[in-house]
Amino acid sequence: MKLCLLEDDAIMGESLRDRFEMEGYGVDWFRRAGDAERALAAGGYQVFISDIRLPDETGDNLFRRLQRALGTSLPPVIFITGYGSIETAVTLLKAGAADYVVKPFDLDELVRKVRELAQPDDRDPAALADDSPRLGVAPAMRRVEAQLRRLAVAGASVLIVGESGVGKEYAARYFHEHGAGAARPFVAVNCGALTESLLEAELFGHERGAFTGAQRMKRGVFEQAAGGTLFLDEIGDMPLPMQVRLLRAIQERQITRVGGETPIDISLTLVSATHRDLRALVAAGEFREDLYYRVNTVQVRLPPLRERPEDILWFARRFLDELAAGSPPRGLSRKAEQALLRQPWPGNLRELRHCLERAILLADVEILDAGDLFDAEVVETGEAISEGLSDYLQHCERDHIRRALARHAGRITSTAESLGISRKNLWEKMRKLGISADGSSG
Ligand SMILES: Nc1ncnc2c1ncn2[C@@H]1O[C@H](COP(=O)(O)OP(=O)(O)OP(=O)(O)O)[C@@H](O)[C@H]1O
């Protein structure tokens, strides 16, 4: 499976090449139209990906010339376009181009398009070999585990996205443990928790006397993680000036300590995480587009706990075993299990863990009941009436589903379709939220 890539921008080109190689494609990357043209004439490519703006040619001219010269042996072409050139891209689509993506785009989206256009590849399924569940038992999480193991072996840099408390750092550690540098350090830093100057010193270290209070030389996390994995948590919260420095460090694989002059070579695997929408931050000018492409070569999404109900009791039991250390193990009554399943868990695994921690501290019983976990109102009605975020989300969800059911006269198939979820998922939600098909609380 070979792709021809024409992209004059070094960062974009490298990100695309890295990502597609990770996906198992061979990539020939050209920066000049003439070179790509010659390679395409020689044949052997499944898809041609090209920037629409090139220094030596316009995408428009190039495409028409290739069509004339190669005819049906021209592979499907996907153009990368900026907002300013969408019109040209649409014209090219009409002229026979296969597709286009608009910057800033999600690499996953482009990979999907390429996959659809190219023949399916035959990667070794052993690379996806099973392992005991660590990140969850829900199918979505089993897929995430397989993906992380495969990426770890490939030594890829990864961006983990997901709501707060969903287990991003845990997943980063899992990734680290499955990589070649597993015996090497795993170092985590929260980019949102520090001021700009503190973050700079934290990332790159400082020399003695670099600033007031710098009485000793300090190695930054880049140096500490050398040979292993550096986990940059909340990368979306990194101040813009630091983003410039970070990008330079990643590109050049070198850092310089604050107050120092000698560049230090660094080789490590970078895992970044964010609960924010990086693409939206790019559009708002709060996150650099070039850094976005650099850290977002491969994105792994961890779904919120409410989207994977299979994981709720599995994690609850795990946390109980873990928290019981030393004291007799605790179990859950059936009502407690049902109450746990009814919650929307906006704080995800962290919230679930805290909930059990609190219950263990306060209730001196072997089998925890619903009342040990939640307030009486929640237990009795399945519906919290306090002003917490979880209550609010649950109310909204219930309300929305009831209305949809009413609009569709209680027909499950069309209601599920209108909500964009499966029938099974709708039944589960209705059961969890206590709604009957006529929209009333059951
Ligand atoms: N697979 C797991 N097994 C056991 N515990 C887990 C797992 N994943 C997460 N946890 C626990 O859940 C809590 C939240 O996990 P973690 O810190 O990884 O989430 P996060 O998404 O990085 O959160 P934030 O966005 O706030 O940084 C932690 O207490 C962690 O120990």
Automatic annotation (TrEMBL):
Record flagged with keyword ATP-binding: yes
Boundaries of every Response regulatory domain copy: 2-118
CDD domains assigned: AAA
UniProtKB keywords: ATP-binding, DNA-binding, Nucleotide-binding, Phosphoprotein, Transcription, Transcription regulation
Domain of life: Bacteria
GO molecular function: ATP binding; sequence-specific DNA binding
Domain Sigma-54 factor interaction: 134-361
UniProt cross-references to SMART domains, sorted A to Z: AAA, REC
Swiss-Prot/TrEMBL GO biological process terms: phosphorelay signal transduction system; regulation of DNA-templated transcription
4-aspartylphosphate modifications at: 51
Short name of any one Pfam family annotated for the protein: Sigma54_activat
UniProt-recorded name of the protein: DNA-binding NtrC family response regulator
Lineage: Bacteria, Pseudomonadati, Pseudomonadota, Gammaproteobacteria, Chromatiales
